[in-house]
Every structure is written in C-alpha cells, then in structure tokens.
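Researcher: Good morning. I'm working through a list of sequences from a screen, and I'd like to move beyond sequence-only analysis. For each chain I'm collecting a predicted structure so we can compare shapes side by side. This is the next one on the list. No need for commentary yet; just the structure.
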Amino acid sequence: MDHVKIYRKRMIPDECILLKDDIILEQTDDIIITSWNTLKPRRDFHHGYSCYFLKHGYKVSKFYREDNTLLYWYCDIVDYAYQQSNNALIVTDLLADVVIYPDGYIKVLDLNELAVAIEQALCEPRVITQALRKLDALLNLIYDDKFDTLSSYIDKWAEK
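Model: Good morning. Structure tokens for this chain:
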C-alpha cells in the first residue's frame, strides 16, 4: 500500500497545507502514525508524533521540546476525507482541542471557535454537532482513565 499524502485543512484560518515533511511510520485502515518536526521554528515545542484515528475522528499528538522532554499530549477533533484520485487524506480540524499535560491536568481549547464557525457559516451545523459528539467521546475516554488506549499507539514508536 502506498503511503497516503496528508493535508491539514483548517477553517480558522482558512488553509489547506500538505504535510510533506511528515514521516509515515505506520498506516492501516484504522490508523496512520507519523513523526514530524514543527512546520515553522517555535520556542515552545520542536517535534512529535501523531496518530490519526480514522474511524473515531481524533488526531492524538505527543509534543516534545527540543531537548526531547514531553511538553504535552494534544488531541484534535477532526474529520477525514480520502481522495482516491491522488491518494490524499484531507484532515479537517474541527476546532475543539484537548491538551493533557504530564501532571495529568486536562484543558479543553477553542470551543469559542465552534461558535465563530456557526456564526460565520464556515461549515454546516451538522459538522459542529459531529465535533461536539467526538469531543464528548474523547473526554469520556480520558475521564474514564482509558487515554492509554490511544496513547499506546504513539508510545510504541516514541520509545524506539
């Protein structure tokens, strides 16, 4: 199976970027695991790993500082669209995010952007409804202490 080309699509700001430098480590019908460096140099984080859960609508990433220490886990609520004609996966950011810090602190981000998306008609209301349901499912996994069912996919690569 040829590795898919992954595009990151955002509503705010409106952009679609080919993640041409991401390295696909594993690809199945259910997941895609990548390693990557930041697109633009940043002081807060440097590199990481991501796992695209194709059947759940999550992208879970492990962010590292330049010295290879864990900064946090970052979970995006996303939608996937596969384009067979060019073997491309369009990963649309559905705005809501969850950050899990090494000390276990959990922070939900960007819910205000869901409101902006509705107000400015950046997407159909059903997309926001889907995003909220995916966010709820992800938070329930985290609150039920089952985040390891997601993080273990990345940890097996990050520990190599």
